Amino acid sequence: MDNFIPDSRIHELMERKPDPSRVREILQKSRRLERLTMEETAELLAVTDPELLQAIFEAAKSVKEDIYGSRLVLFAPLYISNLCKNDCTYCAFRVSNKGVKRRALSMDEIRAEAEFLLKTGQKRALLISGEAYPRDGLDYVLDAIATVYSARDGKNTIRRLNVNIAPLEVEDFARLKEAEIGTYQIFQETYHEPTYHELHTFGPKADYLYRLSAIDRAFQGGLDDVGVGILFGLYDYRYEVLALMAHIEHLEKYFGMGPHTISVPRLEPAEGAPVAARPPYPVSDEDFKKIIAVLRLAVPYTGLILSTRETPEIRAASFDLGVSQISAGSRTNPGGYSEDGSCEQFSLGDHRSLDEVVRDICAHGYLPSFCTSCYRLGRTGLDFMEYAKPGAIKEKCLPNALFTFEEYLIDYASEETKEIGRALMERKLADVPEAIRIAVNANLAKIRDGQRDLFM
Ligand code: SAM
Ligand code: SF4
Predict the structure, then answer these.
(1) Ligand 2: does its nearest atom lie under 6 Å from the Cβ of 205?
(2) Relative to the alpha carbon of 234, which ligand is closest?
């Protein structure tokens, strides 16, 4: 496959000076929930004027409210192995970092990690691994997926397991699909090819095009729920966002759909990883907020994911700008939940427990959600895009958020969180459309009676 990232066109677009009346027209288009072109996205990214920036932030907030309502979906990463044959210069797991104690969890250890997450109240996890497995091929990962799904805490299970592992061949993507994963995620890290080659000099990941074409192969293997991402700090953020738009346009052209989610990790310090200590293109907090808001406007129907790499302050600001999913209570080392010790992949900006994060989300007026219903009712890929029209998602997302939050409050919340959570539930119940209010209240009553995993 050829490189479909239009390098010189992107450089031209980066030279643009924003025209305020054009920016306002683009914001109007976004408020109609229409996807933006690369050119329009470039115009927004070029904005530095505080008043125009504020207009971008307000438009992003309105788009987010129209599509996602006030729910915020929670998950936690689950690292199964830090074995890796690549040498990404920003990552602690790189093969040349001899200071790392290498470890691939056994199935019993993976079950223990999943049970730990369940006991804190998580229902969604993201399985993560370095690119080297203790057994050949994908078998180890597939066993790990089955093990996570088999973990129990009373009636509760991990209901959706997303996966972030190295790119695969089409046949192996088909096997991942059979294992009933949620989203397959892969981050390009940087779309700028010369920078990519500088930072990935060794191992299979050194092949830029093999990574760039991974989502194509995932679609060909039958997966229809994929996530992309950029590791911000490696190259100019404007280049990266525009290249991401080109990637999405490519996927839409050939497969009729884009990614389900976009992750926006920023480079964090990591042991034995010099590039992480001094990011070549550091992204300021102000620019980071602009990136989130512009992405929200450019691809209104694509979920935006923020991890615990960020501080509680940035995370709280991002809720209003368009982030729809966040991780919480995370550890980034294999075995990190059951025990401490082995090296983290990178340092975290948010060390709070899930309960503390949930409380903070409530305090900001957002509704914590552990919902997994879309994927279990087959509302993924094109079906999800068709379905995610304004109002429709709110009619499902809001009730499902209420059901899963009710479960959390009963089973896992601290007294302090119960108090603020109950008050929030009362307020959010008032937003449930009249037509479904009786059904929603009936389900909530069943949950209080001990039933679990109800959704619509
Ligand atoms: N090993 C696989 C890969 O590289 O695609 C999958 C998992 S890797 C552990 C997950 C992601 O962590 C990478 O795609 C990269 O974006 C991110 N990452 C690596 N080092 C980081 C750092 N120092 N700060 C923030 N994120 C980092
Ligand atoms: Fe390995 Fe992934 Fe880290 Fe690169 S980012 S060294 S591939 S774990």
Answers:
(1) yes
(2) 1
CB of 84 within 6 A of ligand 2: the answer is yes
Q: Indicate whether residue 186 lines ligand 1 (CB < 6 A).
A: yes
Which ligand number lies closest to the CA of residue 346? 1
pLDDT in tens, 244-271: 999 999 999 999 999 999 999 999 999 9
What's the 333 CA to ligand 1 centre distance in angstroms?
A: 12
Q: Is the CB of 83 under 6 A from ligand 2?
A: no
The finding on whether 345 has its CB within 6 A of some atom of ligand 1 is: yes
pTM over 0.85: yes
For 157-216, write each residue's pLDDT tens digit: 999 999 999 999 999 999 999 999 999 999 999 999 999 999 999 999 999 999 999 999
Q: Give CATH 3.20.20.70 domain extents, the chain.
A: 65-380
Task: State which fold the 65-380 domain adopts.
Answer: TIM Barrel (3.20.20)
Q: Rounded to an integer, what distance in angstroms lies between the CA atom of residue 456 and that of residue 454?
A: 7
